[in-house]
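Milestone M4 deliverable, item 7.
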Amino acid sequence: MNFLKSTLILLLSLASFISFAEQTATISQQDLLALMATPASKTIILDVRTAKEFSQGHIKGAINISHDQIKTNLSKIIGYKNQTVVVHCRSGRRAVSAENVLRAAGFSDLRHLDGDMNGWQAANLPLIK
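Output delivered:
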């Protein structure tokens, strides 16, 4: 029984470690604004909300590909795989799903926008409509 408990704890710890290792680094709203203001910045903003959500307001310069269409539309963004790609959705869940697909496709510098669109709007930051 102790062996089973120890094995289970080890497996859960390993799974937690792997999950943590796969988390995408976050970028603050202010750091993203600073990058956007830098002319030489090659940062891409990827909004993975639906087209309807995107049309209701989005961050200037953002590319919109819904999280459930990332795999089928990879060809549209694969050229950015060696650049900084900031991913966001409304609250974070869909962005994490998209980040996993992008990571598997070889994107090397993914960032997750801290607070996603909910945080952006709560801070009254600019939106394009």
